[in-house]
Every structure is written in C-alpha cells, then in structure tokens.
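Before the break, one more example. Copy the sequence into your notebook; we will annotate it together after we see the structure.
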Amino acid sequence: MKLLMVTHYFESHRSGIELVAGRLVQELVTLGQEVVWVASNVTPPPDSKVGSRAVALNANNITERYLGIPLPIPSLGAIRQIRREVQHADVVLLQDSLYPMCIAAFLFARSSRRPVVITQHIGIIPYNNRVVRTVMRVANRIIVRPMLARANQVAFVSEITARYFSRVRFRSTPKLIFNGVDPDIYFPVPAERKLKLRQRLGLAADRPVVLFVGRFVEKKGLHILSRMARLRPDIVWAFAGWGQLNPCDWGLSNVIVFSDLAGPSIAPLYQASDLFVLPSKGEGFPLVIQEALACGLPVVCSAETADADAAVSALLSAVPLDERNPAGTALAFCEQIDRTLAGDGNDARASKERFQFVSQRYCWRATATKYLDLIRSVAPKGL
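Here is what the structure looks like once it is written out:
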C-alpha cells in the first residue's frame, strides 16, 4: 500500500506538527508501509530512505515571514505535483486541514476517489488580532468542518480539538490518537548528570532553570513569558526555538536562548532544567509537554492546554490565561512555578513517575499502529 502524507512543512521547520509527522513516517515505514511525504520547500526535506520518499514543493512563505502565521502558499506547479502524487497513492493522510497544500490534496483525492484520513491537531487559535481571529473562525466553518465531514476517517490528537469539532457529522466515528514520545531519547537523569549538562549548556548550577520550548510566536505566550522573566531575575529562563518574538531582544541577563536545538538534540536541555512552562493558547496537545514529562520535569501550563488529555491533567499544574491582564497572568504563573518547585518539582520519585506515565501512555510504536489500523480500514480491499 502506498500512503501519501501531506504537511505544510518538513520536520526541519522544527514545529510540533512537522516533528510528529517526521516520526510517524519513520514508524510507518518500520511497520512495512511505503510512504511519500509531500510538504513545502521552505526548509530542507529529509533524506529519502528505503520505504519513504520526500517531495519538496515550491511555496511562498510570506505569511509566516511577516505575520508569524505558518501558512505556506504552493505555486501552480506545486499544485500540479500534488495532483500527480494523489493519483499514484492508495490512501491520503493529511496532517491538519487548514493549509493550502492539505486542501489541494483533499480536493484531488475526492475527485480521484482516493480515501482520505485527516489528523486534526488544532481547533481555533484565539489570535489577539481580531481580523486574523475572525478569518480563522470563518475558515474553520467553511473549509475545515466540511473537510472533516467528508473525510473517510478522522483522528484527533487531543480532547480539546475533538470537543471543538464535536458537532461535525463525521462519516465514521473519529478516533483519539495521541502523539508519541521516544523513551530512549527523553528520560530523567540523576542529579550528577544534570549538573554536568548544565555546565555544558552554560546554565547556572545554583539557580532554578525554567524551560520553554516552541516557536517564538504570539500564541505560545511570549508576551507573558517576557513579563515572567522580568518578575523573577532569580530564575534562569531557558528558551529553545525560533521566531519573530525572539527573547534575545528583551535584553535580560537571566534569559538564555538556544536556537539550534531540535529533535533528539534538545533532550539534554530538558534534562538539565528544573521545570517546563508553556503559557500558550489555541493548542491541541503540544508534543513538548509530553517530552518534558518524559524527562521527569514538572509542567506549568495554561488551563486550556491542561485539558488536552484528562489522564495527564493530574501531572500538570494549570494556570488560567487572562488576555486582558497579562501582568496578572504572568504573576500567577510565577506563583505556581514557586509552589511546584517547592513541592515535588525536583523529587526523583516524582520524576520517575512522570517518565513511566509517558512511556506507557504515549508510545510511538503504539501510536503508529493505531494510525496503520485506521489507514487500512479505509484502504481499497486487497491492499
């Protein structure tokens, strides 16, 4: 069976959906599937390996460059290439709906009578810009919901997203499939190892280290994090990622930015930290939370994000986001960080429990197997 997977970027873009897609390709190939991965050429494609092939399409990335919105626009040649790839596929897997490449692949799949599986990562992102927020809400109504209703099968990565689209009249009952984590890469380390990692990464050994991992964009709560860093100069705030709202521009001596870490190379930074923080909004279930928990870190996140999986909510410290009062929200996050660190934040037993929970609930091989079962359920008979 030939599977065509479509995303807006390749994993070298270093955002959650693409990193998930990259690992899913690896796992599906290991399970014996032939996978063609189509995405924009904004960042380099992965090397083609036995069982997989990457197709980089010409696209204009102006929306992300100037607005921070990851929405690459494919060229006419790219659209024609999508059509050819769809016609040669047995099943089409779309990683989210509201991207031009995914929309094009969906339309070609429908016209070619190719079965479609959609993994829906996000629902609505409450952008501060009213125009952008309204456009997304309208697009969800007139584009995403009809796509989900007409797909042969739908998988949600979080309970938040599933609830948002719960009124869609699906062709088949949608599945809830959480993203996976590799426990061979993300795991807790003993105190001595943590100290060595801090020395290697240039992190203070005698001060708490609070970590953020993700793109430096509005929805991740960078404006709240900047206030938190100013409120607490006694804490080292480590940032791993890239984007328009670069913490380097804050001019704070207690802020350290790591812009060249992604995938497995970021694991030591998790392991060297004391706590993970994510004051984001409009998320599905951020992979970084699972990775942080796997490394034994306590997590302080927005109350909305903590609802992504009811089973994990007990391991998360949730703080409500108040967009009208960012200063108050920042203070509330700092207070929760203090309470968490004063509790079992650095307790070895608690770290081990977090790791065990993640390794059992979010196993990549189990995740890929669920996807393969879903794909086979819609594939033409005999494949």
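The chain has a mean pLDDT of 91. The longest strand covers residues 34-40. Try to locate both features in your own notes.
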